[in-house]
Give the backbone structure.
Amino acid sequence: MDSPNSARYSSRRSGETSRRHRWLGGCRDANPDNRSNVRASSQNIMSATLHTRESFDHSPVMAEEIVALFGEVPHGVVIDATLGGAGHTTRLLEAYPWMSVLGIDQDDMAIEHAAALRANSADIAQRLDVQRGRFDSIDTFLAQRNIDSISGALFDLGVSSPQLDMADRGFSYRQDGPLDMRMDTNAQLSAADVVTGYEVQQLTDVLRNNADERFAFRIAKAIVAARPIANTTQLAEIVANAIPAPARRTGGHPAKRTFQAIRIEVNKELDILPRALHDAIRATAPGGRVAVLSYHSGEDRIVKQAFRDAESNPLVQTVASPFQHHQSANKLVRKVKVAERPSAREIELNPRASSARLRVIEKVGS
Ligand SMILES: C[S@@+](CC[C@H](N)C(=O)[O-])C[C@H]1O[C@@H](n2cnc3c(N)ncnc32)[C@H](O)[C@@H]1O
């Protein structure tokens, strides 16, 4: 189960950093050997990312695995469908001088951060193209650039640490903030609309479908009874009080699943994922790969289904990791159903990565 405060990377910020600067920062590379392997053409990227390391330090989840699996794809454009702090993207660009990235994010702050990275490095400016928007518009974004096929795509789903850590975005049950939770701050629907406008049954469905919340009905009734609800602190208290005391004491913060469910509803995260995965797989060239990092069962179910659908097309195949290739007799499909998880070492360094599941699909024909 995802935790609303379980972000994908840990952040270390200096106290008075501005909003924009909280996004600035670079990849943390725990392995000095990897750094020594960085190619000369990537030096600009390293200096751009190191430049802001003080203000934002994060570890993109399963970064080594992600970098490794894109080493084998045909050269060209990789889509980072969830650009965020560009942690994965900067690692990929560092590792592969032949690669260009089209980075997509619906959050203005991610776009501003990418713009700052581009401004700091001519190499990044040349190889990172940035698109503000939702990842279910991949087809449109590719068409606008006359790109027929891609080397692959990465989806690192959900919300990021910087988004969670900013109280005024309203994602966190730990900090007092407005009932917002929009990744795209121009979007119509906010958490306030869900919390104060949905009927009991609608709310129950949201909590069940998006977070497998056991006490969905009780919580939904409590929310409706407590209206008006002004902020995240109040919502978190209402949820905690609606959950029976023994259950309240287990499984982390009692409001975490409710916040996750409302966030998913506000951003329509699960609704748009199947189409985005389908379009990404379709656009991928033979030999290219689509990788998805998911963080809770609802996301993972959709990824599994999208990959199953793709497998029924004999031109694609799934692999659990780039290191376990298994070609079936007909040479068109290979399938390993085990999802990859972060190493114990990574979870120790970044506990927020613990719920991650990596699934990868590989195209074998067009
Ligand atoms: C987990 S973070 C990605 C972190 C990134 N991989 C990194 O290493 O810095 C997810 C990002 O995806 C964005 N996002 C989530 N759903 C999206 C969607 N449907 N379309 C576009 N961006 C989305 C969020 O705004 C957030 O910035």
Observations:
- The radius of gyration is 20 Å.
- The mean pLDDT is 81.
- The chain has two domains: 19-162+270-363, 178-266.
- The chain has 18 helices and nine strands.
